[in-house]
Amino acid sequence: PRDIRARHAWHDIIEHDEIGLALIELGKRFLAIASLANIEAAIAHLVAEGATVLGDGKPSTGAHGLPVVFLHPKDFCGTLIELEEVAA
Description:
alpha+beta, 88 residues
């Protein structure tokens, strides 16, 4: 199924390109924040595996002035995923 492939792609990103990862509890839900060196490559990989990028699918400037995108929670067992690009 699509959500299984997306979760495996997420694991690949975390295992190979992850610089930092935080998991924040939001009530009964979670927000996972991954700081990556190459957000465009991560987006391409995740979308190819079935993940849904929220918004227009392109990074926007986040609260810290860095490029960010959010991945739909339905693809990750209800967890909202934020990808943030940082300098390697």
